């Protein structure tokens, strides 16, 4: 079973991103960039499938600027066998990403595609579902548990009401939720080894996919702030204020 | 043309978030039809028909739609789509699972999690865990939108609209429902509750979480939320997680107990009307946001609060 994992380079989860003064976007110069946390989880799951003897090969793919090579090197250090960089500058929307991933999936003959449920920069939560649609395959989003046996993926999903388990024949598309696993850290020897693993560099145009955005960002602004910071000295004072000042109880 | 709103339901009850998403759908300025896709869900269609401003309800009642899996439901919607130029759903896990699949089949880029309808093709949506609000204009002729329901008031009741039955699409058979683990609770639903009490890592164990948080929730008639740390540690179930990647809530009152206030948590609750924080660390970031901060040990203060209410 060949597994493809889509990994995105994003501003690190610990960075407090700021809106640019001119309202054209957010400030990303000199901001620490990392692999999207949900992609780390997807990759970890793929590597575990390989370690369990269920996957034969794990391929990591990223669409983005030349710098996304760093993200792919991390994926290789975590255990991916090889990587594909699809270089595209500027904003590449989930629909275009899904079209590129479809092309790779079909070219490589992939049985299972793992993605994150959400990229923590655009918070779109779309790409996996779109890829499954374009491939005409089943989808299991927000996965917290994945079992592969006899060509069927059995997936437990985190849904609003609790948990749901579904079964999909392979090939299929699965997106990871937070509690699927705890991703490993790449060890120093593995980081060294990753330098010599194969990393193919391609261009979006090589796949014949139109990546022109469908959406125009007209403005980016700060969210409405809220005036907090007031303290109370005791439970009695808190209850009093909730009753007479805030009037919420 | 017309807007198609997808109803959120469990085959028995129409979820309250549909009425909020309806307000966003109506803001597009066109007639709105509601699609109820499920099995044995006629009562849901009746409830949807009585929402204000609904022109028509489409009822697709078929065993293949019972679990509302994305593949058969998206096939159904795509079959109906030529009559519509906007498809809208609440940004619930069902809506988020379904709508991007519909969008891709229609070759459309979805606009996720809208909080404002600026014009029929221009929307505001939060990005970067709510650290920025983007205004985006879409060039797609069909708009596919998921709605952050806390940002829109619920539509009221109206005159009963007609209900048409529509056939399900041929089941693509790409996935099969196996089982559900759904917690039934007498408490209000987290996403719709007027009061939410939320516990964090400081609770220390499931036993202590239950011992502290349940009586407080009972006293206030509140829903219970949790931080990711509390869910990861098994103190609370996954569907209680509030935040960037959990549920977004905007109750009248949110009481955060032993939660530090990480940006990912704030993303899910900072639109609450009144925020109370109880934390032993006077420098916890949650205090910067709280209307009423109380410094101290939750193990003494939370029982004291429950008692005082
Ligand atoms: C991709 C990603 C997505 C995420 N999504 C979410 C999300 O959706 N929701 C979410 O909540 N988090 C999310 N997180 C995690 C988030 O970054 C924080 O790690 C998490 O919110 C911390 O939870 P906490 O506040 O309970 O724990 P901590 O940060 O450990 O805070 C515990 C607090 O309890 C206080 N405390 C300790 N003992 C006591 C006591 N006896 N009495 C009173 N106070 C006490 C401490 O002072 C501290 O402030 C996400 C992270 C990532 C990377
Ligand atoms: N540019 C990209 N390169 C690689 N993978 C991506 C890219 N954009 C999105 N993805 C994948 O799709 C998931 C969901 O992203 P999104 O739909 O943007 O929230 C991510 O976790 C990745 O697995």
From TrEMBL, chain A:
A Pfam family this chain is assigned to: ETF
Looking up CDD domains in the UniProt record yields: ETF_beta
UniProt-recorded name of the protein: Electron transfer flavoprotein subunit beta
Recorded superkingdom: Bacteria
Quaternary data: Heterodimer of an alpha and a beta subunit.
User: Keyword NADP: yes or no?
Assistant: no
Query: Which GO MF terms does the UniProt record name?
Result: electron transfer activity
Q: Which UniProt keywords are given for this protein, alphabetically ordered? A: Electron transport, Transport
Check the record and name the InterPro entries matching this protein. ET-Flavoprotein_bsu_CS, ETF_a/b_N, ETF_b, ETF_beta_N, Rossmann-like_a/b/a_fold
Protein family (similarity comment): Belongs to the ETF beta-subunit/FixA family.
Every Electron transfer flavoprotein alpha/beta-subunit N-terminal domain range:
23-211
One GO biological-process annotation of the entry reads:
carboxylic acid catabolic process
Provide the cofactor list for this protein: AMP
Biological source species: Devosia enhydra
> Per its database record, what is this protein's job?
The electron transfer flavoprotein serves as a specific electron acceptor for other dehydrogenases. It transfers the electrons to the main respiratory chain via ETF-ubiquinone oxidoreductase (ETF dehydrogenase).
From TrEMBL, chain B:
- Entry keywords, A to Z: Electron transport, FAD, Flavoprotein, Transport
Entry's Gene Ontology molecular function annotations: electron transfer activity; flavin adenine dinucleotide binding
* Known cofactor(s): FAD
Electron transfer flavoprotein alpha/beta-subunit N-terminal domain residues are 3-181
InterPro entries of this UniProt entry? DHS-like_NAD/FAD-binding_dom, ETF_a/b_N, ETF_a/FixB, ETF_alpha_N, ETF_asu_C, ETF_asu_C_CS, Rossmann-like_a/b/a_fold
Q: How is the cofactor bound?
A: Binds 1 FAD per dimer.
GO BP, sorted A to Z: fatty acid beta-oxidation using acyl-CoA dehydrogenase
Which positions in this protein are listed as binding FAD?
Answer: 201, 227-228, 241-245, 258-265, 279, 297-298
- Role noted for this protein: The electron transfer flavoprotein serves as a specific electron acceptor for other dehydrogenases. It transfers the electrons to the main respiratory chain via ETF-ubiquinone oxidoreductase (ETF dehydrogenase).
Similarity section: Belongs to the ETF alpha-subunit/FixB family.
Q: What name has this protein been given in UniProt?
A: Electron transfer flavoprotein subunit alpha
